[in-house]
Amino acid sequence: DGLRTGEIFITHGELINRLEFSIDDGICKSSMGSDLHSQSTELMLSIRFRSPERNIHGDPVIVDHIDLISGYITGKIDPSNRSAYTNPVNSSTKVIDRFTSKDWVTVNGWNIINKKISCPRPTYFRLRGTNQKVGTSGKIDHSGNPVMDEDYSNSEQIAWKDLWFYSNPIFVYPK
Known about the structure:
It is a single chain. With 175 residues, this protein is mainly β. It has helices spanning 2-5, 82-85, 156-159, and strands spanning 9-12, 18-24, 29-31, 35-38, 42-50, 65-72, 94-99, 105-107, 110-118, 123-130, 164-167, 170-174.
């Protein structure tokens, strides 16, 4: 059902085991993989997530931070415009906020973040979370983006120390 509705997230190394991500305009609420057609440009973003005490490898799990990423929705691109159609980058996409444990409250095992956001034009919002600290691990640059592995050697021990999750986006269309 999650795949059919788009209400899914991907996790590497069981960093989290539950995620609820939604945006509410006071009248309607939409979650991951869906659209919100809103009469308002002022919205409430809600994130609820859970982590197991230990992942399936037996390691303690701690989310260091979650990035809120957004980009403008520009519409369909005509396939005859090869340069635009094959461009894998949406240049408007950026990290617009970063949440750490100081930003969430924990209630009954759920970590909860509520944040007012403004959305004056069609925009998508998605989440990216990790156990890596910004700028200190060699796995994340100073802007918080994952860096390409320079050393392609890997091991089970290396992989279990580099955990991530990614949400499906929510597409917001203000009127």
